[in-house]
Amino acid sequence: MFSVFPVGDLPEFHGGDDLPSILADRLAQGDPGLAPGDILVVTQKIVSKSEGRMVALSSVNISDGARDLARQTHKDPALVEMVLRESSDVVRAVPNVLITRHRLGHVMANAGIDASNLGTCGEEKVLLLPEDPDASAARIADACHARTGIRPGVIISDSFGRPWRIGTTNVAIGVAGPPAVIDERGKPDRDGRIMQVTQIAFADAAAGAAGLAMGEGPEGLPACVLRGLPWQHGDQTSRNLLRPAGEDLFR
């Protein structure tokens, strides 16, 4: 069994804040601290905030293509422009829905651009995903190791909707240390049958468990420690979770 411990007493983050050092210092103080084998799950929101990924919609130059797509989806043209800039492909565009393939490879609503829990700043702003969430996770792991002597696994999480299912759940968009996917294909099940398709989305499952503690609304708990999960350090990243576009059966 495993336990989930929220990391409390974190500040509101702003562009330029040294998030890895702040997290490492907080964990060095204990409660929950860090133990060997821990996984630190950090929300995309505080990573993006600290990396200065906030954009004022009033500053966005809107292309004709974005205006056309905004009319089609009934969305703010400036928001649609930012979605297009962050995306490599438009997957679905209907009234009130815009699904794209993000430049990082994730298929998601509005390219992961979010406007919730950004504070009151007098003008409408949105928050983009980090430039490189895997690198962000690695920097946090390095800072924790330097400060505490323990290198945790680090997962950057974000909330995703799922095709054919209602609601959102947290998934991993950045991974440093833990396996992203555990491949059980070719191994026997408990009856001796060889498994053909079983691949466990370990990092997504860990992010989902952490999300139950961190919440999705006003909770203000943007990081937590998972303790007791068995795993081995490796070199997988969040890209190991991405299904190749050629295997997309729904387009």
TrEMBL record:
Membrane-crossing residue ranges in chain numbering: none
- Keyword Coiled coil present in the record's keywords: the answer is no
The entry's keywords:
GTP-binding, Ligase, Magnesium, Manganese, Metal-binding, Nucleotide-binding, Plasmid, Potassium
- Nucleotide-binding is among the record's keywords: yes
GO MF terms, alphabetically ordered: coenzyme F420-0:L-glutamate ligase activity; GTP binding; metal ion binding
The segment(s) forming the Coenzyme F420:L-glutamate ligase-like domain are 10-228
Query: What's one Pfam family here?
Result: F420_ligase
Recorded hits in InterPro entries, A to Z, give: F420-0_g-glutamyl_ligase, F420-0_gamma-glut_ligase-dom
Question: Which Enzyme Commission number(s) are listed?
Answer: 6.3.2.31
In terms of domain of life, where is this protein from?
Bacteria
PANTHER family membership:
COENZYME F420:L-GLUTAMATE LIGASE, PTHR47917
Q: In its UniProt entry, what is this protein called?
A: Coenzyme F420-0:L-glutamate ligase
